[in-house]
Amino acid sequence: MSRKQTITKAFSAAAGTYESAARAQVWAADSLVERLGPIPTPIRALELGCGTGLLTRRLAAALPAGSRILATDLSPAMVQAASAALPALSFAVMDAEAPGVAGPFDLIASSLAAQWFTDLPATLGRLAGLLAPGGRLLLTTLGAGTFVQWKDAHRTLGLDSGIPDYPEAADLAAMLPGARVERLPLTLSYKDARNFLLCLEALGAQTPKPGHRPLSPGQVRRIITSLGSPCAMTWDILLLDYRP
């Protein structure tokens, strides 16, 4: 099974539990919609990685009446869940890295999905090419400071963390010349590190970085113990705003 298939399977399995654990995802979606500003006339919008529709619902409420939204996700189960809750909108199963849609779009939006892309710079370039004149690409993703507490606990114990290598804000901006990137770090409290891991599983976000060797149960217990209770975890959210 490829990494992309593994990610898709994990998110599909989490379609029924995703929103129960989506505190950071709600924060990111709200932050993105706050950056939209006034939009005077109806637009055509494409959403990538819609999941259960957290951002989709907010876009539908924020955009002018008559706007057309196509919300997409790699996971068929996520698309089914979102479309059942929002039957008036258009949905499709689609890989954001190979967008099989015809532009142009006035807005392309995505919230906490881009961190799963295999080739983020190339994908950003392709998405920019789907924008209409005066269009806008607005997305949130995870930055290098994400789960720093988890990574530090591994480092202290001489272990390798499975957290993927996320970009610094400046590196993300450099992937799409002309883009502005803002850091919006959010630190959440969990009952303990075990609860944090269960929340990741409920989100479908438990797939480790490529090539990571799983830790033994004993090593995981040592990390959980070292982080104590309650346990703080930082989501280093980056917001990219691009207008060609």
From TrEMBL:
Looking up InterPro entries in the UniProt record yields: Methyltransf_25, SAM-dependent_MTases_sf
Q: SUPFAM superfamilies from the entry?
A: S-adenosyl-L-methionine-dependent methyltransferases
From which domain of life does this come? Bacteria
Keywords in alphabetical order, please: Methyltransferase, Transferase
Q: Where is the Methyltransferase domain?
A: 46-135
What Pfam families would the database entry show? Methyltransf_25 (PF13649)
**Its GO biological process terms?**
methylation
Q: Name one GO molecular function term.
A: methyltransferase activity
Residues forming coiled coils: none
For this entry, the protein name equals: SAM-dependent methyltransferase
